[in-house]
Design brief:
Distance between the termini: 36 Å
Helix content: under 10%
Order of helices and strands: HEEEEEEEEE
Radius of gyration: 16 Å
Number of helices: 1
Largest sheet: 8 strands, antiparallel, barrel
Number of strands: 9
Length: 153
């Protein structure tokens, strides 16, 4: 009984601070490299990169504040395990294939976690999961993309 109470207390405290609860279909992937590209005249131009760790936790129930609406999507944590971005899935998963391979994707509303701990709407985009990498296309129309790759074992 004590164990159940602590589990429930933990779940309530996570949700009250704008966290997430994994579901049966949740999974995570940690990437160690990021490259960003800007779209200029229909061409993607490299605009930078780094060797930071980012962990995507897919298919979670998200809460931005106590009593707020439940959202279903993905969380992106930094190398310290702190959630920094929330991707609220819009519509259904669709699967397709492009020059990078087969992927599953969602259209998403993107929220970013502010320094004071609150979540703010940031932008819209499309989140594609290829397995060995994830690509976020930012904006509508798309003006930037971020490629996360080099899966950490």
């Amino acid at each position: 009984m004590k164990k159940l109470f602590l589990t429930l207390l933990t779940a309530v405290s996570f949700t009250s601070f704008g966290q997430y609860i994994p579901t049966e279909g949740s999974f995570s992937t940690t990437y160690t490299q990021l490259r960003s590209f800007e779209k200029q005249d229909s061409l993607w131009n490299y605009s930078g990169g780094d060797f930071k760790e980012w962990t995507f936790i897919f298919n979670v129930n998200c809460f931005t504040y106590l009593g707020g609406p439940e959202m279903f999507g993905a969380i992106m944590e930094d190398g310290e395990g702190e959630p920094k971005f929330m991707y609220n899935y819009l519509g259904d998963l669709y699967e397709s294939e492009d020059e990078f391979g087969k992927y599953g994707a969602y259209q998403v509303d993107i929220l970013s976690k502010e320094d004071n701990g609150t979540w703010k709407w940031w932008n819209v985009g499309e989140l594609r999961y290829y397995g060995s990498w994830t690509i976020l296309y930012l904006g509508n129309p798309t003006f930037m993309k971020f490629s996360y790759f080099n899966v950490k074992d």
